[in-house]
Amino acid sequence: MPESHVHAAADGAVPGFGIDAIHEAARRLTGQVVRTPLLNSPMLDDLVGARVLVKAECLQLTGSFKVRGALNALLTLDEDARRAGIVAYSAGNHGQGVAAAARLAGCPAVIVMPSTAPRIKVDNCRWWGAETVLYDPRTEDREEVARKIIEERGMTLIPPFDDPRVMAGQGTVGLELADQARELGLTPDTVLVNCSGGGLAAGVITALGHALPGLANHIVEPAGFDKMARSLATGRVCANPRPPGGLMDAVSGPVAGARPLAVLRHYDVTGLTATDEEALAAMATAHRLLKIVLEPGAAASLAALLSGKVDVRDKVVALVASGGNVDPAVFRRALAD
């Protein structure tokens, strides 16, 4: 796809979102978030037969990329809205990002979380100073729980992915990745991005689409929870067939985002999946070869790469290791396997 076509299509897909919004977010977040490293291991390269560049968002503030989008959205609010506070619903990483953003901005925050969320994510939200409200994902709707809090307290919702400000903040991952690859004298041929609602994927693929036209774009979802791939195939928002579950909770949200879907449809995106077992193996490989800790959902892209889901031999492949907030028991299981 010619670069000029990519620019026009992507920027016009969602009002308030595009490459200019991503650059604005980058300026807004300067000095507020970590410019995470782009890691490489010759042993990993040898294992897959390609040059592999891993954007280590597991080393981001709160241990996940999510703080980028949350803080960018929060910093666009006026003073009255900040004073009233913000609310988010999240399986954990978005909640931690919103909690951290609220603390940085000095405003109250309430995080609505499923009762099945990993304990480390609940505890971390509380450490940042946020109030947590737990709900049963089998019988309660998280948006309805959040809506009641908003009505009662006059707070502002910071959505986890289906919001142009959040998507733009997540897109700063892609800007950094492109710059860091350029500093290494490398031009990625392929990118793999973990995907749940699609905010990260839409942001990263948009940013990289401007810097690296012709890039092969892949999203990676848990096997059986590939709602965005089905959404791309049908052209309409799809939901997962059952409530979130399994080890890859961070990328097993219930529904694809309409705005991320609108953006991703303007790119040639291939959907891949990874199993829990493949994610555990990827976690162990990341620890052994890159010396980083990944949660299962954050290892999905590496899992797809290691299990041969995409042909990258003799190419330069980039992927986003999106978070490292894993329960100790799960991490021990990954290393034991």
From TrEMBL:
GO MF, any single term: threonine deaminase activity
GO biological process terms, semicolon-separated: isoleucine biosynthetic process; L-serine catabolic process; L-threonine catabolic process
Keywords (A to Z) from UniProt: Lyase, Pyridoxal phosphate
Lineage: Bacteria, Bacillati, Actinomycetota, Actinomycetes, Kitasatosporales
UniProt keyword Lyase present: yes
Domain of life of the source: Bacteria
Segments forming domain Tryptophan synthase beta chain-like PALP: 31-321
Cofactors, names only: pyridoxal 5'-phosphate
Catalytic activity: L-threonine = 2-oxobutanoate + NH4(+)
Any one Pfam family match given in the protein's UniProt record, by short name: PALP
Function: Catalyzes the anaerobic formation of alpha-ketobutyrate and ammonia from threonine in a two-step reaction. The first step involved a dehydration of threonine and a production of enamine intermediates (aminocrotonate), which tautomerizes to its imine form (iminobutyrate). Both intermediates are unstable and short-lived. The second step is the nonenzymatic hydrolysis of the enamine/imine intermediates to form 2-ketobutyrate and free ammonia. In the low water environment of the cell, the second step is accelerated by RidA.
The family this protein is said to belong to: Belongs to the serine/threonine dehydratase family.
Protein name, per record: threonine ammonia-lyase
EC number: 4.3.1.19
